[in-house]
Design goal:
It is a single chain. The protein is globular, with a radius of gyration of 22 Å. The longest helix has 21 residues. It is built from 13 helices and 14 strands. It is an alpha+beta fold and 454 residues long.
């Protein structure tokens, strides 16, 4: 027991006498929060003794169904594993002032991190960077749609009604201030909740499609903390939407004829003195920047299942859709997968644009940092940066179907050295179970096409 951590809980309870219950939060393999709700009187006990959750939390698909292919379900007896509070994550729940929340980490019986926890995978990758005196500076951008919560099962979602016009939103305009005005109160609630929870939400902007928005997080010199911010921001956005009688969806492609939802990661690297390793003598950056780019390109096909973890993810990859479809990179170019934004030299960074908003931030950033580390070690130069339309580059190495992505992940050469072979096998088996379950369902379109024709 760490006395300092217990004092953190005691101080929080003293400062917030009106809080009566707490949500214990454990992000699963899909970064979906699983957990329990406890009464105020039990909080100190959690800090002293921990709390048990089944290991099968990390065997759940996105619907919460345990995939027995992982071996963490009935085969293992569905064992309970102790979980403990993560320091400095005890916060007020802004939309339920009588409630608090707390992030947990799962530990093996010997006190080591549970192998199947994506957050611990990121910790281990960051440790490899720290051995060279490097620290990642990370920020996440998340896109989402606001949709009408009233719909029939299987029905395409409908856009929300505009507060300004009273009509359903049918057009979107990038950077539109009127769209921000129409949802001003909703966005204000997100901003205020983020401040209360000390989440550095930076800016909100309207995207191309009607009802689509992006909220950016400010960069922090702690990759794990940056991902904590991302998953907690999604929780805030969903809750704020619910309070405004709408629904926020991070589904990567909810509309076939509209842009998808992406998760962009901005990444730079600090040395022991806190200087940006990517900063060079001119606006092209340092050799380390180019080596990092090539390293990330080297793991791009291997990590496609992480960037696009679900069946719907692959509908997003369409030419001309601002979702990349190849391993291209370039300067100040939004058609590439790896973009070097226009910036001043101290802010030189990589923007990874491939992943959908359904990606697990911990695994996504783990893959990027693994590629970055690999690139800096091997010191391989990338091909020439793409100028102009990268969609015209047809020689892609990316798997663009769910099944192909899993096959590339299963045959990965680089990622297992960073993630651990045991974790990679668990993730692969989880996706195998999810794919088999998804494919066993007959879609309505199949009846329309085949019932009377074949």
């Amino acid at each position: 027991m760490n006395t300092k951590f217990v004092e953190e809980a005691e101080s929080f309870l003293e400062q917030h006498p009106d809080i009566r219950e707490f949500d214990l939060l454990l992000p699963d393999m899909n970064a979906v929060f699983r957990g329990k709700r406890i009464q105020r009187e039990k909080l100190i006990s959690i800090y002293k003794k921990g709390f048990y959750f089944p290991a099968s939390v990390f065997a759940m698909d996105v619907t919460g169904e345990t995939m027995e292919e992982t071996g963490l379900g009935f085969k293992s007896g569905d064992q309970d594993i102790p979980c403990y509070p993560i320091p400095e994550t005890l916060k007020v729940v802004p939309w339920r002032k009588e409630r608090g929340q707390l992030l947990l980490r799962m530990l093996e019986p010997d006190g080591s991190p549970f192998f199947g926890n994506p957050r611990e995978v990121l910790h281990s990758v960051c440790k490899k960077l720290s051995e060279f005196g490097w620290k990642a500076m990370v920020a996440v951008e998340i896109e989402f749609y606001l949709v009408d919560p009233k719909r029939r099962p299987g029905q395409q979602p409908l856009p929300v009604f505009s507060r300004l016009t009273g009509q359903r939103e049918t057009e979107g305009q990038l950077y539109s201030l009127s769209s921000l005005d129409a949802h001003e109160l909703f966005l204000k609630d997100i901003s205020e909740a983020a401040i209360i929870q000390n989440i550095p939400a930076d800016t909100a902007l309207a995207e191309l499609a009607p009802g689509q928005f992006e909220v950016n997080l400010h960069h922090v010199p702690d990759a794990v903390l940056a991902c904590d911010h991302a998953v907690l921001l999604k929780r805030i956005i969903r809750s704020a939407a619910q309070n405004h009688q709408v629904e926020a969806t991070f589904m990567p492609k909810p509309y076939p004829d509209q842009p998808g939802n992406g998760m962009h990661v901005h990444l730079s690297l600090l040395d022991k003195e806190g200087q940006n390793v990517f900063q060079g003598s001119d606006d092209s950056g340092s050799p380390e920047l180019r080596h990092a780019v090539e390293g990330i390109r080297s793991v791009m096909a291997e990590s496609m299942l992480i960037c696009a973890p679900h069946a719907n993810s692959y509908h997003r990859f369409q030419s001309g859709s601002y979702a990349p479809v190849n391993t291209s990179w370039g300067y100040n170019n939004r058609t590439v997968s790896i973009r070097i934004p226009a910036n001043n030299a101290p802010d030189m960074r990589i923007e990874h644009r491939l992943a959908g908003a359904d990606a697990n931030p911990y695994l996504l950033v783990s893959a990027l940092l693994a590629g970055l580390h690999y690139g800096l070690i091997t010191k391989t130069e990338p091909p020439a940066p793409v100028e102009g339309n990268a969609y015209l580059q047809t020689d892609t190495e990316l798997p663009l179907t769910w099944e192909q992505a899993k096959n590339h992940f299963d045959h990965a050469k680089i990622l297992p050295e960073y993630f651990g072979k045991e974790f990679c096998q668990l993730f692969s088996n989880l996706k195998l179970g999810e794919q088999m379950r998804f494919m066993s369902t007959i879609a309505p379109l199949e009846y329309d096409w085949y019932l009377k024709t074949v």
